[in-house]
Amino acid sequence: xxxxxxxxxxxxxxxxxxxxxxxxxxxxxxxxxxxxxxxxxxxxxxxxxxxxxxxxxxxxxxxxxxxxxxxxxxxxxxxxxxxxxxxxxxxxxxxxxxxxxxxxxxxxxxxxxxxxxxxxxxxxxxxxxxxxxxxxxxxxxxxxxxxxxxxxxxxxxxxxxxxxxxxxxxxxxxxxxxxxxxxxxxxxxxxxxxxxxxxxxxxxxxxxxxxxxxxxxxxxxxxxxxxxxxxxxxxxxxxxxxxxxxxxxxxxxxxxxxxxxxxxxxxxxxxxxxxxxxxx
Amino acid sequence: xxxxxxxxxxxxxxxxxxxxxxxxxxxxxxxxxxxxxxxxxxxxxxxxxxxxxxxxxxxxxxxxxxxxxxxxxxxxxxxxxxxxxxx
Lengths: 280, 87
Known about the structure:
The complex is a heterodimer. Chain A folds into 2 domains: 6-224, Phosphoenolpyruvate-binding domains (TIM Barrel), CATH 3.20.20; 228-276, no CATH class. Helix content of chain A is 48%, strand content 13%. Chain A has 12 helices and 9 strands. A 7-stranded parallel sheet of chain A has the order 1-2-3-4-5-6-7. In chain A, strands 8-9 form a two-stranded antiparallel sheet. Chain A starts with 5 loop residues before the first helix and ends with a helix. In chain B, 37% of the residues lie in helices and 26% in strands. In chain B, strands 1-2-4-3 form a 4-stranded mixed sheet, covered by helices on one side. In chain B, helix 1 packs across helix 2. The longest helix of chain B is centred in the middle third of the chain and has 18 residues, at 38-55. The chains are: A alpha/beta, B alpha+beta.
């Protein structure tokens, strides 16, 4: 949501998204950076966002705006700060700033999380070490538009040009046990294309997807939610596991197929996600 | 804070308030507020403006404001932005 638009800021919490990103960067003109920062700060203090996770995208750390963005916004305790084009060194420096702010404001240490955006060739090639650089990182957002711009290539709806990027980000995030958020689909009226694009991201291991329009939220949530059949199967796996354990059996089968650790883990993840989404 | 020059903040978009401020030659605080909800919320809006100016230690200012249905947090934010731009 553009950070300088009060109507959008105060309605963001009721659009149905799991997280909202209040933007101080690309959606705000250079002459209005101060205005957006103060407005977002006051929104965070006064608008009730309920259970929606509130993330603020600050300006790039090497810009003249970043440090004052972080200083003012962190003090009103967003759930996370989103850092454009983040490098390891920048995340370490931001971590130090946040340690001081959390101490000064009496917040729990480490309570303000970070979400770096991977949107440059450097960021993509170094995504694993970027995530490893700071314990505050809870997710990575893949920025497809800026990445393809940095690579000097054309961004397409089909997304073949970002396949490597999607693979790399999803795998690195999984290895580091953080969430991976796919780049938004930019055609606000093509819902069929949105579903195809979202299924591609999910099939590669992404755990979520960003949206640039509230019209996209339902489709994205539908794709990422486990189906009724998947939930039922996962529950059967876990029930069979409990039964096997009570009989002292180390291995067991379900529907004629052996059930091993990866299948059990997948079942646990499915049931946990279903619970989080309120499906069970 | 002193108001050293004219400044403005906000927009005429729905849910926003357009603030123009300038130094006051006579001293004191003068507020000229126009709002689509003047009857219902005019007094409250003026109080928010005054409270914000007090927090910023502004004692001498002319504020011209055109409100398009801004909530209190927006009024406060736009006043603070304008005052800081007038430094």
